[in-house]
Design a protein that fits this description.
single chain; alpha/beta; Rossmann fold; six-stranded mixed β-sheet; 13 strands
């Protein structure tokens, strides 16, 4: 199969609140798939439904080549919301319980492998309650990797981490993706998602706003940021010569989108001919944050 998960018509209500509304989406095998949305958009509820944690009101989901609705616990590792471990047990003991749930035989070599992977082996006999927040998150990552599953699911994996912790999680995800794993990441940290994801869907109030390859979602016009000795005159000049698609002022900048076929050098030529001095010109590609903010308005 080319798809690892197919969701059709998934709907979940909590009283009068529609957490997920008729969601239809397909997650390709081998992708790093970002599930984006502001708080309350339905990210965690969607993952909880397809993992069997929450029962949907309607709709179906299909993992791998399994029958619709059947779970794939032996093929995936997941962190949903805050990781739950026994505070009085150490890392090895907590992971032994995870291994038992996943029916992993002779788990110790595998436990040692994942503890080394997340740099916790030296603290493997310390109780979970003695761990820092970052160490607790890393133990959750170790639990996700346990058994070397084909699919990894992370719900806000960098939430509350410092820059070093965020970088660690990002590199771990990239490393797993290089091994051919399919990875699903629910997050609101758009910059991090853009750095690692190949595909994305954006949710708002339980509704799917858009989905597809990140490069396709970000397709759009480049914005040119201009600073000159007279932005008003420059704006009037560019509009009069019919070379701009849109223009707006932001502080000391004039931000424009050129019409198709117009080259950036034409701005400089027109400004020079009309004695307008451009002191700065910068072309900026659309970011995932730009697209996200436009879509959820």
């Amino acid at each position: 199969m080319n798809n690892i998960l197919e969701i059709k018509g998934l709907t979940k209500h909590y009283g009068n609140i529609t957490a997920v509304n008729n969601l239809n989406v397909t997650i390709p095998r081998g992708s790093v798939f970002g599930v984006l949305g502001p708080n309350g958009s339905g990210k965690t509820t969607t993952l909880a439904c397809v993992l069997g944690i929450v029962l949907p009101d309607s709709g179906t989901f299909k993992w791998f080549d399994l029958p619709a609705g059947q779970l794939a616990n032996n093929k995936l590792g997941a962190i949903i919301e805050q990781p739950n471990f026994y505070p009085y047990l150490n890392a090895i003991q907590n992971l032994e319980l995870v291994a038992k749930i996943r029916n992993i035989k002779n788990p110790m070599p595998e436990i040692e492998r994942v503890l080394h992977k997340v740099h916790l082996f030296e603290r493997s006999t310390s109780s979970f309650s003695s761990y820092s927040y970052g160490m607790k998150r890393r133990l959750a990552l170790a639990a996700t990797l346990l058994g070397d599953p084909d699919l990894l699911i992370f719900d806000e994996p960098t939430n509350g981490l410092d820059p070093e912790g965020i970088s660690f999680v990002r590199n771990l995800i990239i490393d797993q993706a290089k091994l051919g794993k399919t990875i699903i990441i629910a997050s609101h940290i758009l910059d991090e998602v853009e750095k690692v994801c190949t595909d994305v869907m954006i949710l708002k109030n339980g509704n799917l706003i858009t989905s597809g390859k990140v490069v396709d979602v970000l397709q759009g016009d480049e914005k040119i940021h201009l600073i000159s000795d007279d932005n008003n005159a420059l704006h009037e000049l560019l509009v009069r010569n019919d070379i701009v698609q849109s223009a707006e002022f932001e502080n000391d900048k004039l931000i424009i989108v050129l019409k198709k076929g117009v080259k950036t050098r034409q701005i400089s030529e027109l400004a020079f001919e009309n004695k307008i001095i451009i002191t700065n010109i910068e072309t900026k590609k659309k970011t995932l944050e730009d697209e996200f903010l436009e879509l959820i308005k």
